Amino acid sequence: MGHAGPIAGREREIGELTAFVAAAEGRALVLRGEPGVGKSALLGVAAERAADLGQRVVRAAGVEAEAGLAFAGLHQLLHPLLADAGALEPATRAAFDIVFGRSTGEPPSAMTLGVAVLDLLALASGDVPLLLVADDAHWLDPQSAEVARFIARRLSGHAVHMAVGTRADTPSPWDGAGLPELTVPPLSAEASARLLNTTSPGLTAPVRRRILDEASGNPLALLELPAAAGPADGPELPLSRRLERLYGDRIAGLGRAERAELLRAALDGTGALPGRARRPLRAVDDVTDHYAGIIPSLDAPPVLIGHSFGGLIAQKLLGKGLARAAVAVDPAQIKGVRALPPAQLRAGFPVLGNPANRKRSVSLTPAQFRFGFGNALEPAESDALHERFTIPSPGRPLFEAAFAAFTRHSPAEVATRNPDRGPLLLISGQADHTVPDVVTRAAYKLYGDSPAVTELKQFPDRGHSLTVDHGWRAVAEYALDWLDRQGIQGHDTAHA
Ligand SMILES: Nc1ncnc2c1ncn2[C@@H]1O[C@H](COP(=O)(O)OP(=O)(O)OP(=O)(O)O)[C@@H](O)[C@H]1O
Ligand SMILES: [Mg+2]
User: Fold this and answer.
1) What is the 8-class DSSP label of residue 23?
2) Does domain 250-485 have CATH number 3.40.50.1820?
3) Which of these, 408, 442, 403, 444, lies nearest to 425 by C-alpha position?
4) So what's the pLDDT on residue 344?
5) Residues 280-320: pLDDT tens digits?
6) Residue 260 near residue 337, CB atoms below 8 Å
7) How, if at all, do strands 181-183 and 56-61 pair?
8) Helix axes 256-268, 280-294, angle to 10 degrees
9) For the chain, how big is the Rg over CA atoms in Å?
10) Residue nearest (by alpha carbon) to ligand 1 atom 13
11) DSSP secondary structure letter of residue 139
């Protein structure tokens, strides 16, 4: 698959794999690491070493599309060995015939099948030792994985080694399997530089630096970003197909808060700030810093009122002690909020759901807008708001956001424990699909330890459009009354 040049770095891992295949005692080893980090490459090295030692190597890989096919993975792994099955006990052979669909009958238990597989492996490794390689094992169908785990623990006494590759960020049957593991970390800075220099000589210094920075030791990124970077030191590094899939998968594997953050970025178009397209999540910090730079020049600390992403930024500034008070209306998820209700996922889906969106400007259709923003309104009002407020924003930043989310601190971090900050009002439209009530409530809870004033006001039957639809006045008046109660008069104070 792709690049097959010399391996950069990995002295420790290769040493360990060499010892593993050479050991007289059979055993299993699980290689675990992030997508593109080089698990398959290392499994390839292990296979080469085993072949050099005269061993027989059988390779199989989990296939996402076959994850639902019972025993598909096991079939792949055992198929080359089944020629030896003739020498097995008839009952043992029958077990294979049934699970591989060559005869009908009561399927054997995982244990019976596991024992049958061990018998077959013993037979197949009678003359020369055997190395089984199971790559992408996170995609093995559960039935095969169960049997594979069973045999993986019972290889001692056989001349059989089993090397398993699995992704660190994808839940898999190999998590907590209690098997010996070899973690495959990102490449060192030195090995990264060496790999980039040999595979992409002649890059300009700034492009080279940026690729090293963005790749963060991921070999796949080091190999593919240069091709994507184009001739000039352009404003963004587009993603190749495999990288895109890599980060697409990572979106799926992200923590809920980060995922929600991406959804927010998608919906609010925050990722689309001019000149900031490459690092949309940084945009939150950039905007926050921008305001933080302006605030000291005001006569008095401002009252900050923000909606959605604006609500997140208002909280960040308040947490830094820069505001007199803040009102956050259906605010984007702050770090630490774990809820991710299905409606919120669906609200973000118009952009994230289609990889082609990285190349396009994405505009919500009226129906999508109605779901994400105008669900509490009559369709006619929602459509009118859609007409008035929706602007297309690039989809690409969202995909690149996934990239940034891996290597950087979450910009959604808010100082929730600052005891000296001004009062905070969180407003929740309880029908909001984009920032569901549970998300705002969870944010409210995060402030629970702070002695500073925090209040939650819920408006039933209001959606994400609550600040711009026919009901805006009720929200605005509540906020002003609340400020009044905090001793802050709306009319004689500087507003932001
Ligand atoms: N240490 C290395 N030196 C040089 N090239 C490498 C190194 N590690 C990996 N590569 C190359 O980087 C690319 C990605 O590596 P690989 O396919 O092994 O990743 P992976 O961890 O198996 O990813 P996935 O989880 O997607 O299967 C491949 O082209 C591989 O040849
Ligand atoms: Mg791989």
Assistant:
1) -
2) yes
3) 444
4) 44
5) 334 566 667 777 887 887 778 888 888 777 788 889 899 99
6) yes
7) unpaired
8) 70
9) 28
10) 220
11) G
Query: Domain extents for the chain?
Result: 11-183, 250-485
Query: Helix 110-124 vs helix 90-99: angle between axes, to the nearest 10 degrees?
Result: 110
Domains 11-183 and 250-485 share a fold: yes
Pocket residues: Cβ below 6 A from ligand 1: 1-3, 7-10, 33, 35-41, 136, 167, 187, 195, 219-220, 223
Ligand 1 centre distance from Cα of residue 405 (Å): 21
Ligand nearest to the CA of 11: 1
Ligand 1 atom closest to the CA of 7, numbered from 1: 3
Q: How far is the CA of 46 from the centre of ligand 2 (A)?
A: 14
Which atom of ligand 1 is the closest one to the Cα of 44?
A: 18
Instruction: Kindly give the distance from the C-alpha atom of residue 181 to the centroid of ligand 2, in angstroms, as a whole number.
Output: 16
**Which positions of the chain have pLDDT values less than 70?**
1-4, 227-287, 333-365, 368, 389-412, 490-496
Name the pairing type of β-strands 130-135 and 160-167.
parallel
pTM of the entire predicted model = 0.56
Asked if residues 117 and 158 have their Cβ atoms less than 8 Å apart, the reply is no
The CATH code belonging to domain 11-183 is 3.40.50.300
Q: Which sign, positive or negative, has the C-alpha torsion 162, 168, 172, 173?
A: positive
Q: What is the secondary structure of 358-423 as a DSSP string?
A: GGSEE---HHHHHHHT-TTS-HHHHHHHHHHH---EESHHHHHHHHHHHHS--TT---TT-TTSPP
Structure tokens at 170: 């994808």
